[in-house]
Amino acid sequence: MIPEKITSIDKLINITSKDMGRVNDLIIQRTLSDTEIIPKISQYLISSGGKRLRPMLTISASQICECKNDHHISLAASVEFMHTATLLHDDVVDDSSMRRGKISARMLWGNEASVLVGDYLLGEAFKMMVDAKSLESLEVLSSAASIIAEGEVMQLVYSNNINISEEQYFKIINNKTAKLFSAASEVGAIISDSSTDFRNSLRDYGQFLGIAFQLSDDALDYSSTNDALGKDIGDDFYEGKITFPIIAAYRKSSAIEKKVWEELHNKVDKDHDDFNTVLELLGSKNAINITLDEAKKYGQKAIDALQVFPKSDIRDALIEGAHFSYSRKS
Fold this sequence. Notes:
Elements: H1 10-30, H2 37-46, H3 53-64, H4 71-94, E1 98-99, E2 102-103, H5 105-109, H6 111-131, H7 135-157, H8 166-190, H9 196-223, H10 226-229, H11 235-238, H12 244-251, H13 255-266, H14 272-284, H15 287-305, H16 313-327
Antiparallel strand pairs: 1-2
Helix pairs in contact: 1-3, 1-4, 1-16, 2-6, 3-4, 3-8, 3-16, 4-6, 4-7, 4-8, 7-8, 8-9, 9-15, 9-16, 12-15, 15-16
Family: Belongs to the FPP/GGPP synthase family.
Protein name: Polyprenyl synthetase family protein
InterPro entries: Isoprenoid_synthase_dom_sf (IPR008949), Polyprenyl_synt (IPR000092), Polyprenyl_synt_CS (IPR033749)
């Protein structure tokens, strides 16, 4: 059973802190450029308080597999660069005004600069993958980059489509979110020359963790606050994203309620009253709790994937990460 009220990743942060310090130093080094706007935008977003969970997965995976080299550092930094690039691109696509509790980069420097700096970071990410001298790691992360982009396009295609199925929804979040979690974990095992069993277990752990994390994020967008979430709540609704709480509520709705849902998502300019109506509909169907229950299921799957490893402090820290994925408040 999953214990309740585990809402931090302090153990994971502490146990990876030494290597993460090296990762952060490398990140700063690789954002330096004679083109002034590149380090300005890169470091603005990178230093804005993100959890660094994805590179921590690479570090912790290398630790649980007893890595004997330093290549996990460059791979962890490349993972963070990939993630940062997707944030810059996503904010442009979504017209987001906030990111991690701060004004988004696109609002300060414009869409063009945000997209181009995102492209620069992706280029640097691939250079660091090459530095790690692991063709397998390069294959896993380059494949992830392609799949993430495909997931974002799929989400765009299904924008405002209230009839999206659970299967289609899970394919989107597997691609756009869980794939990088999975790849980040897997390359930690690859660079450690670990066994196939360990590699597959960490790959599965990352995938299930990423799904739980995204389900939790979907719930928070309708149940948190701007300050806690670090972005505007309701963004998913205003941007036309059909996420799990809406799918769960729509599935339980009457014919009349389904018509209300359809009218809301067909509106071009959604307003605050529309969002309040959505909150009422979600509440009447217990959709937030249903979403969090689903997140817990995937959190447990992530924990189960770790059972191949002997008990250790790093395994306990990864288990804590799985608890955090569904119980977090931001």
